Amino acid sequence: MGVIKVAALQMCSGTEPEKNAETMERLVRQAAREGASYVQTPEMTGSLQRNRDALRAVLRDEEADIIAVTAKKLAAELNIHVHVGSTAIARADGKIANRGLLFGPDGRKLATYDKIHMFDVDLDNGESWRESAAYEPGKQACVIDLAFGKLGFAICYDLRFPHLFRTEAVAGAEILTVPAAFTRQTGEAHWHVLLRARAIENGAFVIAAAQGGLHEDGRETYGHSLIIDPWGRILAEGPDAGEAVVVAEIDPAEVRSVRAKIPNLKNARDFNLDILPALAKGGVTV
Question: Among 5, 12, 62, 156, which one carries the catalytic annotation?
Answer without folding.
Answer: 156
